[in-house]
Amino acid sequence: MSSQTETIEALFEGAARLASETLEENRAGRGPVVRRLSPEELGRALELELPAEGRGLECVLELAAKTLRYSVQTGHTRFTNQLFGGADPAAIVGEWIAALSNTSMYTFEAAPVGTLVELALLDKLNDFVGFSEGEGVFAPGGSISNLMCVLAARQRAFPHIKREGLRPEDRPVMFVSEESHYSLERAGLVAGIGTDGTVLVAVDEVGRMRPEELERSIASERAKGRTPFFVAATAGTTVAGAFDPIADIADVTESQGLWLHIDGSYGASALLSRRQRGLLAGCDRADSMTWNPHKMMGVPISSSATLMRTKGSLEETLGMHADYLFHGNSDNAYDLGDRSLQCGRRVDALKLWFSWQVQGDRGFEERIDALFGQAARFRELMEERPGFRLIREQEGTNVCFRYLHREKRGAEGSERDLHEHAATLAIRAQLAEEGSFLVNYASLDGAATFRFVAANPETGDEDLTALLEAIEAAD
Ligand SMILES: Cc1ncc(COP(=O)(O)O)c(C=O)c1O
After folding, report:
1. Rounded to whole angstroms, how far apart are CA atoms 458 and 421?
2. Ligand 1 centroid to 316 CA: how many Å?
3. What is the distance in A from the centroid of ligand 1 to the CA of 208?
4. Which of 12, 58, 247, 459 is the most buried (most CB within 10 A)?
5. 83 lines ligand 1 (CB under 6 A)
6. 88 within a domain of the structure (yes/no)
């Protein structure tokens, strides 16, 4: 064996050891969730300066250890800050292999394995949605998938757009719920519709779009001479975790001839569970769907499927047919490049494929059921304790709540909201400072609200109780 091979082997063995130790620590909930440093302190600890003379492969393990030491441990059982959590060893290896094979997903010729794997996964996801003749492509995240779906809807409604762009008389307008993800409004902005062209439809007390409000808004926009073309229902809203009533919304979009998109970035994974898939009843009536396996399914970021009910929609919208890349040979039908906003594209499909092979449909179903069960359990434990107040009825895997210390509990109405708002910010900051928990907050009904996210099935009752105790102790 050459000495270079030995050095590389030692490097990879060291990296593998570091990886398994990190996974083990996080699974056991050992160590802090985060070591909080100011940007200046962190900059010093990382020694960011780039050397004039290379340090050689010997420095890589030290860099890796340092990176992990100061990173947020998103695989930790006490990380509940984002809509993802945990760590899947099979998917991590898939990610490594994607880097090792280092190719780009535009043509079958350049990425034969990635292409077939991606197509198989898209078929599988489309089966769960009910898009029996569907297609799709992977994208760098839910935001980009949402954008692609807005563009596809715009293409269908205004077929001249690809050549001419928007005409002054087009006046497109789209509809999303007021609790939808901001990426949809941004997609409108990128699509030349502007934020004024995106109508935010009112939600009910759970956070679900009100179909009757949607119908009213559409009529009102038509009366202004604008052209409605796109409605997005959200399956799993970012803060409340609510599921918009898709079948009722589909009744509206079908009668109005509008494109129905489902932003299932977060909640589409509920389709994997026989118990939970009813939350998306009617989703097969949509025209497009975004589904992020990098959220509930625990695959490392990014893994986002852009799904279309009708074959050809993406290429019709985005295809540019560059002949230096797509040579028109017999494999061309497999080239995914003209379905994508990107040219060079990572092989994101591999990690999900590895994970699916290991877990199967049943393993994913168990995971999703465990996450829904964990959120319900957290709520139950919370409601046993005085001072905690559920802010939204829990539908998905988020629990939105506030806490008030006993001395302040007599307060009423807006004064109480004010106390809870201040307490939420202070408690959250203290937990993050200690590194004991990372739990996020958002503004709901005008005041800061804790958002617990069940994202890591390894998080147990002990962690849930410890979070409630830490909140009580921090106040
Ligand atoms: C409902 C919803 N849609 C879209 C997104 C955007 O996804 P990404 O962060 O992958 O761009 C998010 C992210 O949290 C989300 O919650």
Report:
1. 30
2. 25
3. 17
4. 459
5. yes
6. no
Instruction: Say if ligand 1 is within 6 A of residue 269 CB.
Output: no
CB of 86 closer than 6 A to ligand 1? no
280 vs 154: CA distance, rounded Å: 24
pLDDT tens-place string over residues 177-226: 999 999 999 999 999 999 999 999 999 999 999 999 999 999 999 999 99
Under the banding of pLDDT at 50, 70 and 90, the label for residue 311 is very high
Integer CA distances (angstroms), 289 to 85, 173, 216, in order:
23, 19, 24
Report yes or no on 382 lying in a domain.
yes
Query: Among 74, 147, 183, 209, which is best to mutate for testing ligand 1, by the most ligand atoms less than 8 A from CB?
Result: 183
The CATH number of whichever domain residue 184 belongs to comes to 3.40.640.10
Q: Residue 290's beta-bridge partner residues?
A: 263, 306
Nearest to 182 by CA among 141, 222, 221, 228: 141
Please state, in angstroms and as integers, the Cα–Cα distance from residue 310 to each residue in 111, 149, 269, 462, following that order: 24, 12, 21, 47
Greatest alpha-carbon span in the chain: 77
Which amino acid appears at position 438 of this protein?
Answer: L
Question: How does pLDDT run across 218-271, given as a tens digit for each residue?
Answer: 999 999 999 999 999 999 999 999 999 999 999 999 999 999 999 999 999 999
Number of domains present in the structure of the chain? 3
Task: Tell me the whole-structure pTM to 2 decimals.
Answer: 0.97
CA of 419 to the centre of ligand 1 (A): 30
Give residue 190's domain range: 104-346
313 in Cβ contact with 304 (< 8 Å)? no
Atom 16 in ligand 1: residue holding the nearest Cα: 238
Distances (CA, A) of 465 to 157, 277, 377, 459: 52, 29, 10, 11
